[in-house]
Design a protein that fits this description.
The complex is a heterotrimer.
Chain A (H helix, E strand, L loop, with lengths): L4 E4 L3 H8 L4 E4 L5 H6 L7 E4 L8 E3 L3 E5 L4 H6 L1 H6 L1 H8 L4 H6 L2 H5 L6 H4 L41 H7 L3 E5 L6 E4 H4 L18 E8 L7 E7 L7 E12 L2 E10 L6 E2 L1 H7 L6 H13 L10 H17 L2
Parallel strand pairs in A: 1-3, 2-3
Antiparallel strand pairs in A: 4-5, 5-8, 6-7, 6-8, 9-10, 10-11, 11-12
Helix pairs in contact in A: 5-9, 11-12, 12-13
Chain B lengths: L10 E4 L14 H5 L1 E4 L6 E8 L2 E8 L4 H8 L18 E4 L2 E4 L12 E3 L12 H9 L8 H13 L6 H7 L10 H12 L2
Parallel strand pairs in B: 3-7
Antiparallel strand pairs in B: 1-2, 3-4, 5-6, 5-7
Helix pairs in contact in B: 3-6, 4-6
Chain C lengths: L7 H6 L14 E7 L5 E7 L1 H5 L3 E6 L12 H7 L10 E2 L5 E7 L2 H10 L1 E6 L6 H4 L6 E2 L15 E9 L11 E8 L2 E6 L4 H12 L6 E4 L15 H13 L3 E4 L2 H4 L9 E9 L5 E13 L10 H5 L5 E11 L12 H19 L3 H8 L17 H11 L2 H4 L8 E2 L2 E13 L5 E7 L5 E4 L9 H13 L6 E4 L16 H24 L14 E3 L3 E4 L4 E5 H7 L5 E7 L4 H4 L3 E13 L5 E11 L6 H21 L3 E3 L4 E3 L17 E5 L23 H13 L5 E2 L3 H6 L1
Parallel strand pairs in C: 1-12, 8-30, 10-11, 14-15, 19-20, 26-29
Antiparallel strand pairs in C: 1-5, 2-4, 2-6, 3-5, 7-15, 8-13, 9-10, 9-12, 13-14, 16-17, 17-25, 18-19, 18-24, 21-22, 22-23, 25-26, 27-28
Classes of the chains: A alpha+beta, B alpha+beta, C alpha+beta.
């Protein structure tokens, strides 16, 4: 690890002001950042400990719920209100990492996790995301874990978070504090980026921006929500494919549906067309199979991950079915 | 070569000393073309007061030092193990303010004021913690290297009430890898303690 | 205090010291720098940046390191038997090959400085692609051929298929580590993670051309090995060189990614098995061919086809093997080397044959198992109860009741259920070893050997054997091991540890009884003529069991002989029995799997392993070994695969997030049982080894169960969900 200056930050204003400086980097839970620093992938000159500055409460608001950025993943997953009214969030959180890491990782930091693409993680390998201009090792290399939608010739990495898939499905908002403006709100779908020509940028967080909270609007999905995660082992592994599914039902009729996936793209991916299809249909296996078929229509696998297409199709069906048994 | 001014990036690239590239595909040439020059930074020390196993330590630590390395290399509390150093194995599990956490992904400087319990602090008055006793009785280990982390995690698993079924125990103990595969005994140990 | 392992308290309290954990005054830290190209030559090092880091003491490279005497020149290197003359060559054979060691005051300094070391290379062409290379490598006969291939050309039923296994990595939880210190100019001391201290001592003695007696190697606690600790690897030599260079103790701990390239792995393997049977299911002939990967600089070879010559009565058998050289680091023995891979081909092929024959695979095996005579050597098995393992395993999992002959016929919702089984066999070896017993004045004894205990329970087994023999309570028997100054012993590996030590400990006990009789006779002359076996050890002294009691206190024995300690040693090893008999351990593995029809997810929810390992010295530790091996087998079957990038010439995803071995949730509670019949010929305890046999056959049992569940025959390991879906 490269030496750095350590600073304890007391307020959000201070955090945002200092973060705007070159080489300054915030740390909260540290579960991904420290890993990246040890690998010399992230090399801050000044490390800003913002754990004392960030909000760490879960509160109800007029429109829903606000989860402070410093709330630890396990605290959010086990929170009564989240478990009862936003169970998809709890399920997704519990599908991620390990109990130890969930006790440490912050909600804000979860949004800023970087990809787990092995080419990104090994500094001796080419990677446009880590070292722009070096090429993408995965695109015609070991890309079993890589994207099947939304990728570019520059980068085929996937976003690693489980929480974010649920947040994307529930149309959450990311609350950001910057130096120039008190509060910026970025809708979840606009927070993370696609790789395009600039895969080194994962998201649209402003340079001085500090995530202070995530807002989730109230919804009627809490009775019928499911998170399905498929991975190379039963637990403690990143997703090959994950699906967050949520249905609002009136009897057997689908009033509204949400479908999002991890393990498929550079950002949490919403399946809008399938959602539109589901709306107004009866919640039957046949409907779900048709929705899953619509989902996979969009995909375009790489040399080593064609399996993700049938796996995604199966996972969507299972997730929708699980919504009925939630 | 002249040292460059500090920039956001770790390495600055020049192409003065090109390696032979005959066998690396064209798409990745740029990477090997570059010979990196680094900005060499000096280490910085911070004073930190932490409580380890109820004992307060005030230390001057390298800002880079992890809690795990502090425990093992400075305080010689080697019960917390290094199995990967990247949060991928659970061998370094300790309790921070009563919650299980990974000491390899915690900076020592960020532990100011926090209470750390390691495996060495689990036995009280010379008497093994019930979980240590259970691991002994159920043979919940082989080589013993992941064991302190397993035990710290197991104590937390019981405290968290995640012992409702074998499947639940297994899921909530899956952050602690055991290459010897002593999972039978680990589960049995936890069931034994949870049943009390 | 409840009974546990002899070293149990040290392990559950974290007080046991593993190699990197000894407090050594003035120690400094070494961090290895690996090559960034897969093949070529080092042209120049760029060390200026690294040297600028405060705290850096030195950086050793092939240009400035202290020379290892045995690596003096090309010829002596060849003779040394050490395939990678680390820091004594400018050649690069694989990516990640150690090219420098940065030595600094702290771990943080050394790690940072190591990240600043670079080199320029003259790069050569390379090849890391096993699959496309092996077809052009010719096979050669191996082992003893039986009968002819023509003899079964008209076999009524033939299974003929190819099987592949990816490169797997041991990954013991403790990363390899060495602390080396030159206690004087010609005396070296090491705390080192390995599976055999005498092997490390002997190897260093040869390389540095110094007497073995001048080298002390300590490995009291070993955080797992699985074969990765059987050789002396480059980092050990680098640490010794570094300590010489900076004249201080140096500690080197490998990083987890380095664990994937610097301490071996199970090679990638291809196999082809053709097996024929008559209409009644009697095996007629087998052709088993295999090739496995190895490094360009090393000649590692493992016998993948051996198991096909041993397990079944097959009148015609031919086996052929080859190795494929790649620009990857050297593979080595990994739990059940050779046979573990070979059993996958053989036991899947037999399963395939069973479906052709429409015969229950349990019956097919019982009918063909060679439990009387080892077909390979034609010697009678000393003991082989594999048939009983199969019968008992089938009963325990209720095979007859639940297993359906028709594949893909049992469904629970989206889950398809299936049963599978396979057998495993491993030669039951025994080596020569020494053990010592020391008695203190208070009547406590310590049983000692240089052998390591890598988690197998060897120490506890030694305590049990000494207790059984001498009757001294276990809490008065200490065990000391893992130090080269203790009585010499071979490395712990190949399931020979306890089989070897049991003989040595019994010999030491006998020697101890003789010594006690001799010393007690100074107090009471009656002891001059006693049968030493008649001596009983009591709380305060010794007495005679059948010859009139005649108690003599320990106090008197020590006082009258003017002794501070009683100390005996004995050596024991295999003998003529090895000429007369063949020895093996056997196992039958049964699994139940659930396969998800829509997602390809495989869940193994029942495992039954039944093992014939002779007399079981310690039930708990033995069952733990077998259930642990089953978990290893699950990894081999379902999750473990080291990815290799063929274009860039290197392994990728080499960490514990990228390489998946099973977590707790992957394994069911594993049902282990033993036949438990002693093998009276192998050693005085009657105990056969069991470390390997638990993993051999586990992967094919899983693959066979997946076939039974789905009707999909998956012949390439690991069977990840993508393979299930795409089959």
């Amino acid at each position: 690890m490269r030496p750095f200056t350590f600073q304890r930050i007391q307020s959000l204003d201070q955090a945002s002001a200092r973060k705007a400086n070159d080489g300054h980097q915030c740390i909260a839970g540290g579960t991904n950042l420290l890993d990246l620093m040890k690998k010399n992938i992230t090399v801050p000159e000044v490390l800003l400990d913002i754990t004392k500055a960030l909000p760490d409460q879960i509160e109800t608001t007029a429109k829903g719920i606000r989860i402070g950025a410093m709330v630890r993943n396990s605290a959010a997953a086990n929170h009564d209100l989240i478990r009862s009214k936003f169970p998809l969030v709890s399920k997704a959180l519990l599908a991620g990492a390990s109990p130890q890491i969930r006790n440490m990782a912050s909600i804000g930091g979860n949004l800023l996790q970087r990809t787990r693409c092995p080419y990104f993680y090994d500094t001796t390998l080419p990677c446009n995301k880590r070292n722009p201009g070096t090429g993408c090792g995965a695109i015609d290399g070991e890309n079993r874990m890589s994207a099947i939608v939304g990728y570019s010739t520059e980068c085929v990495a996937v976003h690693p978070s489980d929480l974010c898939i649920a947040l994307a499905a529930l149309d959450a908002n990311v609350i950001i504090r910057t130096t120039d403006k008190k509060e910026t709100i970025i809708p979840f779908k606009d927070f993370h980026r696609l790789p395009g020509e600039t895969p080194e940028q994962d998201n649209n967080l402003p340079v001085s921006g500090i995530i202070t909270a995530v807002d989730i609007p109230s919804n009627q999905f809490f009775k019928n929500a499911a998170y399905v995660k498929l991975r190379d082992r039963e637990s403690y592994a990143f997703a090959l494919i994950s699906v967050a599914a949520a249905l609002e039902l009136n009897g057997n009729k689908i009033v509204q549906a949400r479908l999002a996936s991890g393990g498929v793209a550079h950002k949490p991916w919403r399946w809008y067309e399938a959602e539109a299809f589901l709306k107004g249909k009866n919640a039957t296996l046949e409907t779900f199979q048709k929705a899953a078929a619509i989902v996979v229509k969009e995909t375009k696998p790489l040399s080593n991950n064609a399996f993700k297409v049938p796996m995604l199709k199966g996972a969507v069906e299972v997730a929708l079915q699980n919504c009925l048994n939630a | 070569m002249e040292k460059q001014t500090i920039s956001r990036r770790f390495f600055l690239f020049t192409s003065s000393m090109a390696a032979s590239l005959a066998f690396i595909p064209a798409g990745v040439k740029a990477f090997y073309n570059n010979v990196k020059r680094a900005i060499v930074r000096s280490k910085e020390k911070e004073t930190v007061s932490i409580i380890v196993n109820k004992q307060k330590h005030t230390l001057s630590v390298d800002s880079r030092t992890t809690l795990l390395d502090l425990l093992r290399e400075e305080l010689h509390l080697t019960g917390s193990k290094k199995g990967c150093d990247h949060g991928q194995c659970g061998a370094c599990t300790v309790h921070i303010d009563g919650q299980r956490a990974l000491s390899c992904l915690s900076l020592a400087v960020m532990m100011e004021g926090h209470e750390i319990t390691t495996i060495e602090g689990l036995a009280q008055d010379g008497k093994l913690h019930p979980m240590q006793q259970a691991f002994l009785e159920c043979d919940g280990f082989q080589c013993g290297y992941c064991t302190p982390g397993q035990i710290m995690s197991a104590v937390a698993c019981v405290n968290e009430g995640r012992t409702g079924s074998v499947a639940e125990i297994k899921e909530f103990m899956s952050g602690n890898l055991c290459r010897c595969g002593a999972y039978n005994g680990i589960v049995e140990s936890i069931q034994k303690v949870a049943a009390r | 205090m409840a009974e546990g392992r002899v070293e149990g308290i040290s392990k559950v309290t974290g007080s046991g010291k593993y190699a990197a954990e000894y407090k050594v005054d003035n120690v400094c830290y070494g961090v290895i720098v690996g090559s960034t190209i897969p093949a070529g030559e080092i042209e120049a090092y760029h060390l200026d940046d690294a040297k600028e880091v405060a705290g850096v003491l030195d950086i050793i490279t092939h240009l400035n390191r202290p020379s290892i005497p045995a690596f003096e020149n090309e010829e002596s290197i060849k003779k040394s038997g050490f395939s990678l003359p680390v820091l004594h060559t400018d050649k690069v054979f694989f990516k990640g090959q150690p090219i420098a060691l940065v030595i600094a005051e702290t771990l943080e300094d050394a790690t940072y400085a190591a990240s600043l070391v670079t080199a320029t290379y003259k790069q050569s062409s390379f090849n890391v692609d096993f699959d496309t290379t092996h077809p052009s490598i010719p096979l050669a006969g191996t082992g003893k051929e039986r009968g002819t291939m023509d003899a079964w050309s008209n076999a009524a039923f033939v299974a003929d298929a190819e099987y592949n296994i990816k490169h797997e990595v041991h990954n013991p939880m403790e990363m390899h580590a060495t602390i080396a210190t030159w206690v004087s100019k010609d005396k070296l001391k090491l705390w080192d993670k390995n599976q055999g201290v005498n092997n490390v001592q002997g190897t260093l003695s040869r390389l540095w051309k110094m007497p073995a007696a001048n080298i002390e190697v300590i490995s009291e606690f070993v955080g797992g090995g699985f074969g990765a600790g059987l050789l002396v690897w480059p980092h050990v030599l680098m640490t010794v060189m570094a300590a010489q260079q900076v004249k201080r103790p140096v500690k080197v701990v490998l990083t987890r990614p380095q664990m994937f390239t610097l301490v071996g792995y199970r090679p990638q393997a291809w196999q082809k098995v053709k097996i024929g049977a008559d209409k009644d299911g009697n095996f007629l002939g087998i052709l088993h061919q295999s090739k496995h990967s190895k490094s360009v600089y090393d000649n590692y070879r493992e016998g993948i086809t051996r198991i096909s010559r041993m397990l079944y009565k097959i009148p015609n058998a031919k086996t052929e093997e080859a190795t494929v050289s790649l620009n990857l680091s050297a593979p080595t023995w990994m739990r059940g080397p050779g046979d573990c891979s070979g059993a996958f081909g053989l036991e899947c092929a037999i399963d395939e044959l069973s479906y052709q024959l429409k015969k229950d695979p349990v019956q097919l095996r019982l009918q063909n198992l060679a439990t009387e005579i080892d077909p390979d050597t034609q010697k009678p098995w000393s003991t082989n109860f594999l048939n009983e393992c199969v019968e008992k395993g089938a009963a325990n999992i209720e095979w007859a009741k639940y297993r359906k002959a028709q594949p893909a016929s049992v469904k629970e919702g989206d889950w398809m259920i299936g049963y599978g089984m396979a057998c495993g066999m491993w030669f039951a070896g025994r080596s020569k070893a020494s053990a010592g017993i020391k008695m203190q004045k208070d009547g406590t004894i310590s049983v000692e050997t240089a052998m390591t205990d890598i988690g197998t329970g060897t120490g506890t087994g030694m305590q049990n054997i000494a207790h059984d023999n001498l009757g001294i309570p276990k809490n008065k028997i200490k065990v000391n091991l893992g130090n080269s100054n203790l009585p010499a012993a071979p490395s712990q590996g190949g399931s020979t540890g306890l089989s070897t030590m049991s003989g040595a400990v019994v010999a030491a006990c006998n020697e101890f009884r003789k010594k006690i009789a001799e010393l007690a006779s100074v107090v009471d002359e009656a002891y001059k003529h006693v049968n030493p076996a008649d001596i009983v050890f009591t709380k305060n002294g010794v007495a005679l069991q059948t010859q009139g009691n005649r108690p003599v206190s320990y106090e008197n024995i020590f006082a009258k002989n003017n002794l501070e300690i009683i100390d005996v040693q004995a050596t024991s090893g295999p003998g003529e029995e090895r000429q007369k008999y063949a020895f093996c351990s056997g196992a039958a593995h049964f699994v139940r799997v659930k396969v998800h029809a829509k997602t390809g997810k495989v869940k193994v929810d029942k495992i039954v392993s039944v093992v014939d390992a002779g007399y079981v010295v310690n039930d708990k530790a033995a069952a733990n070994q077998i259930s642990g091996a089953a978990v290893g087998g699950l990894g081999m079957a379902l999750t473990e695969e080291q990815l290799v990038d063929h274009k860039l010439g290197c392994v990728v995803g080499n960490d514990l997030a990228g390489y998946h071995f099973p977590v707790n949730a992957d394994a069911p509670i594993i049902d282990v049982s033993f036949i438990g019949k002693p093998d009276v010929n192998i050693n005085p305890a009657g105990a056969k080894g069991l470390g390997e046999v638990g993993i051999i056959g586990m992967a094919p049992a899983v693959a066979n169960a997946i076939y039974n569940a789905t009707g999909k025959r998956l012949r390439n390991l690991p069977i990840t969900p993508d393979k299930v879906l795409m089959a």
